[in-house]
Design brief:
Elements (H helix, E strand, L loop, with lengths): L2 H20 L4 H41 L15 E5 L3 E6 L5 E10 L6 E5 L4 E8 L4 E3 L6 E3 L5 E7 L5 E8 L5 E9 L11 E11 L5 H7 L2 E5 L4 E3 L6 E5 L3 E7 L3 E20 L6 E12 L8 E9 L2 H6 L19 H19 L5 H15 L1 H16 L1 H10 L6 H14 L8 H20 L19 E9 L3 E5 H19 L7 H21 L4 H24 L2 H10 L11 H25 L1
Antiparallel strand pairs: 1-2, 2-3, 3-4, 5-6, 5-11, 7-8, 8-9, 9-10, 10-18, 11-17, 12-13, 12-15, 14-16, 15-16, 16-17, 16-18, 19-20
Amino acid sequence: MDKNTITGLVLIGILLVGFSILSRPSKEQIEAQQRYYDSIALVQQREAELKAKAELALANERNAQAADSTSIFFNARQGQEETITIQNNLATLTVDTKGGRIASATLKEYMSQDKETPVTLFNGDDASMNFLFYNQKETILTENYFFTPVNANDSTVTMRLSADSASYIDFTYAMHHDSYLVDFTIRAVNMQDKLAASTDYVDIEWKQRARQIERGYTYENRLAELTYKIANDGTDYLSNMKDDKKEVTEPLEWIAFKNQFFSSVFLADANFEKTKLTSKMEQQGSGYIKDYTADMSTTFDPTGKVPTQLYFYFGPNHYKTLSAVGEHIDKDWELNRLVYLGWPLIRWINKLFTINLFDWLSGWGLSMGIVLLLMTLIVKIVVFPTTWKTYMSSAKMRVLRPKVEEINKKYPKQEDAMKKQQEMMTLYKQYGVSPMGGCLPMLIQFPIMIALFMFVPSAIELRQQSFLWADDLSTYDAFITFPFHIPFLGSHLSLFCLLMTVTNLLNTRYMMQQQDTGANPQMAAMKWMSYLMPIMFLFVLNDYPSGLNYYYFISTLISVATTLIMRKTTNEAALLAQLEANKKDLKKMKTTGWAARLEAMQKQQEELMKQRQQQQKK
């Protein structure tokens, strides 16, 4: 492998390391976050007092409104709080009569960390939803009133807020078979003389504390973010590494409170307007990762002629499941954007190739560790033509190295650098060898390798799937747990990450043995960097999913084996003889391309040197 190929490898490695480092908090960010938590501890009590006073004032105001006997929903201010359960074969929801809101969401097909109880996205005080209706006299806050359940069955319930026997507001929740989508309809009946006819909207306050559902707080927190879809445009999100808030002026199709593998999504037929979003970090060990808030409004017809059509999605961040949401009602909300698959080119590779290949292999009923192994083998086969081209370019440069050394000896002086470079380029052209011939094929491989890097951490299929010593391929394998925290590494050591690091070091050592660095300081520095990169990976990827480190481990092993086989099957003497046979006549060669530009630059430099020499003589 020649110097240019090594340079390409180092650049690609730096890109990988840079991306990984940028995707995790730096030491300064961690220290800043810790200082932040330490500083607020001093004023926490004062803030709590102020918050309590504000909440008390708001509660008094709301209670005063509710207690007003002239309120249109005066009779609904008292009642018995209870929950109504609706369900299908995928999820169970409870709807609270206080506020008429969904109080809990449990997914039947996914287990919590104990692997015995189903995943609950929220319950009790984890979440709240308040609707604000208006008339000339008051603001009606649904969280203060008791609803009456009507027309309830296994999968549907209507929660009714009654002004009198003939006037009411209905919240209807309907679940469909084999779907995580919940239809939610708001309809006013005979309320035209009780609600402000000029107010054609309803304000909504939605809050949820996202639970820590997975074992790895650090990585789950990194992938948990408040995401939203701009109408007729793409998606955006709030920061996942710090407290963040934003007022969105554009209409939104949906808002998602996202965990690593699950999401609560609120969707509107007529879009959300005047949206204010907030995402706050939760402390590690609290049982939560983020505190999400969304305040928005959507259309509402107080006459009841047109119902307000909304939807909820409580379910997994599974690409094809999310892609199918809304198909039965001819909606394409692009909810699959909740599964991050990388930059546009990388995303297309994952959509068209990686996901379909993964689903095909998974359909065989194999363990996920074997599926990842087979995927890696297939990908290696797909990119083998470029691997072979890279190797052959390196082999050609290697057999021509004696001739390159002769040129180096011919031009030892620095001022002859241009002549030396031009003669080398002429040499390469004579033998039909390109110094950059090995880099381009490697760059073609790069998007496919990055696609797998993006796909594996987002694959919910790996969740709680064991392989060898790893009990969950979607999070780190804590093969060794330390009773203390090691800077940059954490309190555990992932064995797959360690194996990946050792394998990369061995691979680097093997590649370096094929190079004669001599006393060249540039090559010596490059060699040092090549050994440093795998060690950096150990610290960067220790918190990453074991499935990802396992993929890198077997991918490197396959690369080493492939290189050894190609080296054993390549006769370098025969290759040199072939190059000599195909050598072009220097006199008949026409200088074009880079060589022509290099020659022109050399002539220009020589002319400048002559002018300087003449000026010095004067």
